[in-house]
Fold Putative oxidoreductase yrbE.
Amino acid sequence: MATAKFKETSPYVKPKPAPPEDDYLYKKYLEHLTLKTEKEPIVKVALFGVGHAGTIHLETMITSRRVQILYIIDDVKSKWQSIRKYWHLDNVTFLSSKQCDKVFKDSNVDAVFVATPTITHKDIVIKALEAKKAVFCEKPIAEDRPSTVKCYEMAKKVGKPLFTAFNRRFDPSYWNLKQRVHKGEVGHVHMIKRVAHDSPLLSLEYLKVSGGIFHDCLVHDIDLIVWVLGEYPDKVSVLAHANIPEIKAIGDFDTVAVNFHFPSGTLGMIDLSRNSPYGYDQRLEVFGPKGMLQADNRQLNSVHLYNELQGIITAPIWYSWPSRFMNGYKREFEHFLDVIHDKTESEVKSKDILAVSVLAHANIPEIKAIGDFDTVAVNLHFPSGTVGMIDLSRNSSYGYDQRLEAFGPKGMLQAANEQFHSVHAYNKLQGIITAPIFYSFASRQVEGNPGVKSKIATACEKSALVGKIMELTWTKDELPDNL
């Protein structure tokens, strides 16, 4: 037999391989299996708000042996009894916001979790800190920079942690990607790209009090990029459009394209939408001279259906943020408790939170550049309201990377890279190794209208040189029917 010479000794006589460092769930399983305990006091908490995020935090608290819930504060009194009965919270005191002073006066309360509407955050945070409680707050801490600064100054004054819940930082995929970027696996980053298409479309009632797409959604993606790179951008440009009339009517946007420039030369792109009909599309990509790291979407299961000649059908991606980022929520919760017990420093620094707030308000500065470029990020706005983005590089170390995506209210079409072959290698615990993509344009070519492309390319070059959005007008002769 051709492979007989590769036979090895029994796995029982060899050292047992260690589980991957990133297997967070297996580590928690071992803790429960071995009944591992540490000498630390139980953290007694109060939860403000049992809505979208508050429900997730409530479940995490109930399943944690490290905390005890003393109070739940929520103004919808009609659901108090249902919450108490569903979660068996017979020993928890329910209060309205008008009664919350009882929480701050109770010396037994160690920490306060804030998951109420944005406009209420600052007052709760300040009162909790004044009462010398540790604070875990959903973003944003406050609606403006001066108020946010005041909250952090108060936290410093009383010596208590103020933690802003940017849970994407604690997602295992993004955490792994960040560590590998900092180890230099792709070299100096030339381009970082983020796709964030939300699902499901949130109610207008929520959107009206959300603070708008820039402060409700975009702040997460800005924070993620800044965290991965470890630097703040010095230039930003934005295109935004409201394709959904009801969202336009409340003065907000549903589609946003953002470009960043960083002092080190790195470019960044964010593709953001309020309404993804095919699930919670969350991707992150980092490109450099040594290669690319890509955190892709996760799916409900790994089943593939081969049906007649209709192609291969796989499971959908996760439907929404509570499922996609559940591990991130759990890990940030554990991290906050570690911060309270002085086991670690907070991963979310005040300077990062303040910088993200500034960037979400940022205007387009004047930019001037000389010479040619090897990395380009382009935003395009079309008369129909469509927004386009182009990520361009002269130098790919891993092959001819040519991808195209079209996103709309009915779904997304994606033309992915083509590979030499379809063989997958599963080698120990090193992951799945597939074939490279095609090496060059000689293997994969596309065509188009050269006149139209030239005009757009010239406008893009001028935009990069002068730092302004360029307006394009077209004649009938320039736009043939076969465009």
